[in-house]
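User: I'm curious whether this sequence folds into something compact or stays loose and floppy. Could you predict its structure so I can see for myself?
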Amino acid sequence: MPDVASQELMEFVGRAQGQAAGTVHKLNGDASSRSYYRVETQERSYVVMAMPVGARAPEEVTSGAAPAELPFVNVQRYLDRVGVRVPHIVRYEEERGLMLLEDLGDLTLAAALATRSREELYGQAVDLLARLRARTTREPDSSCVAFTRAFDRDLYRWELDHFYIWGLVVRSGRQPSTPERQVLDSAFEHLSAALDTLPRGFTHRDYQSRNLMIRGGELVVLDFQDALLGPTQYDLVALLRDSYVELERPFVEKMVARYCAALEGYGIDPGDLNEFLRVFDLVTLQRKLKDGGRFVFIDRVKKNPSFLPSAPPSFRYVKEALASLTGFDDFREVLARYVPEIA
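Assistant: Here's the prediction. I'll summarize afterward.
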């Protein structure tokens, strides 16, 4: 999205707060069409989210009809109601594509890892995720757009095909042979069908270290506008198989066990831990193939190369997941010919 003029942003804050804004600083954005600015007034600072006017479609491909309300506003209201800490919306002017949010500062979970205990931070994030899952399971709301769309076989397959185009063909500069493509297609179908059978619940979709802010010792959840229904393991994969922070397997398994114990504490049976981990690896396989391809797409199509360094970690997670799963030998062999990190 093109930059918004400082004068327009200051006028917007003035309308919202009744006082003139002083300075405007553009913040580092994400891979979406949104832009972010920190705007200072005499009393406090705010963050302005600028988006294309009339944009209600989700940033990520999803299922379901187009929402009647901006998903960020819709999901924020729901999460706030069920007691999950999310940014406070001060003012939203849909006709201008501008939203005024509380300023949460700059300390993400990813940044806090430089000075704080990894176990403490991830333990806090895992506990919050279990609480989020429990509360949204007990208090579903059909007016929340997340409950009207879901990960299904078609969506899983679309994301795998997205990987095939961008993470395999475009990234390698080579086209698989017909027999190789048949192996890939068969694995994509098998994986999509297996994941489609899993029970679904509220899923943030990108619950990772850069989308968790630390404010007054509390975690604040960001970037929830693409929420939908998905497997219990999905958000845990996003957190523990984060492309921005690589974690070793023993630590991941420890956090998975902590998550399952937390769910049990809320009266939700996660089932056998070994089976939970097997599904965790299946979700990792699908999610991280998609992520790796997406980072290449963002570079080539959106002309934003900043996410390219996160493609190799994504594919290393794929390699690790494949090492723990059975039935994917031929798939792994073909992938290894085109994705160096899997070789």
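Summary: The first helix runs from residue 6 to 17. The first strand starts at residue 21 and ends at 26.
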